[in-house]
Amino acid sequence: MVKYKWTLMMTMLLIALTAAFLLQGMDRSTASGDLSDPFLDPYALSLAHRHAGPAMESAAEKGVRMQLSWPQGEPAAGESSLLALTVVNGRGATVNDFDISNEKLLHLIVVSKDLQQFQHVHPAYKGDGLFELPIAFPSGGGYKLYADFLPKGMNELTRMGEVEVQGAAAAPSILKPSESLVAHVDGMKVELAFAEKPVPQTAMNMTYTFTDEQTGEPIEDLELYLGAVGHVVAIDQKTEQFIHIHPLNWASSGPQAVFGVSFPAGGLYKIWGQFQRNGQTLIVPFVIQV
């Protein structure tokens, strides 16, 4: 299985640096409120480049593994189960020191294999490489778990695990492209647009635009979610490709959130945009064809 973390081409870096230069002298509130010229921060690119991806991992990084266990018994649908996640190195010893990434030591994305269920959660670190979290699965069946973490002295790593949850499975569903890349969430119209038609292994911008669904006025009071205007997770239909995407205009409060993405292969992808407003986390899903 190929586990992939997005990377940005040098051309995008040059574009972002040019944009930052042009915005010198503007404060962040002015820049982020300009619908046509969002604040692009080169620092966001430096964060993104820490997601090296398996092809660029060092020998020590390649040896890092994630071990999953269920100390209180195997999980069942609709019940809280204790998940224990241990990070070990190539010698089997626990990895004990981690740096914070986007306000947390570990980000865990949990999806059902049909991509209908999605959770972004943060297990608590107990020491000696062990993270724990009570978690409930809404239905039975297979789930994939993707963990993002940053061992001290290494790049940010992604590791994947699986679990079969006991109980009745959800009704079968067929994944198909969204008819429209427009959603209505908590009084907002949220529109997703790509700078060009998504094709594999091509860096491009994807932009979420937020407006009031009644007045059409730009939304400019988005709050930082995990240290940024938003986060995006994209997973392909086979659950083999996983992309965690950070925003270029990380400090924006709207009306746009701009992300750089490169899809590793063609196929259907489900994309979950995650944002925050009025203290509430908002999840905006779409399905696209690459």
Give an overview of the whole structure:
The protein is mainly beta. It folds into 2 domains: 10-49 and 175-289, Sandwich (Immunoglobulin-like), CATH 2.60.40; 55-165, Immunoglobulin-like (Sandwich), CATH 2.60.40.1930. It has 4 helices and 16 strands. It has helices spanning 10-22, 28-32, 42-48, 59-62, and strands at 65-69, 80-88, 106-112, 118-121, 124-127, 130-136, 141-149, 157-165, 182-185, 188-194, 204-212, 231-236, 242-245, 256-261, 268-277, 280-289. β15 (268-277) and β16 (280-289) form a beta hairpin. The two termini are 19 Å apart.
Q: Going across the biggest sheet, name each strand in turn.
A: 1-2-6-5
Give the count of structural domains.
Answer: 2
Q: How many H/I helical runs?
A: 4
> Could you name the CATH class of the largest domain?
Mainly Beta
Describe the secondary-structure layout.
Elements: H1 10-22, H2 28-32, H3 42-48, H4 59-62, E1 65-69, E2 80-88, E3 106-112, E4 118-121, E5 124-127, E6 130-136, E7 141-149, E8 157-165, E9 182-185, E10 188-194, E11 204-212, E12 231-236, E13 242-245, E14 256-261, E15 268-277, E16 280-289
Antiparallel strand pairs: 1-2, 2-6, 3-4, 3-7, 5-6, 7-8, 9-10, 10-11, 11-14, 12-13, 12-15, 15-16
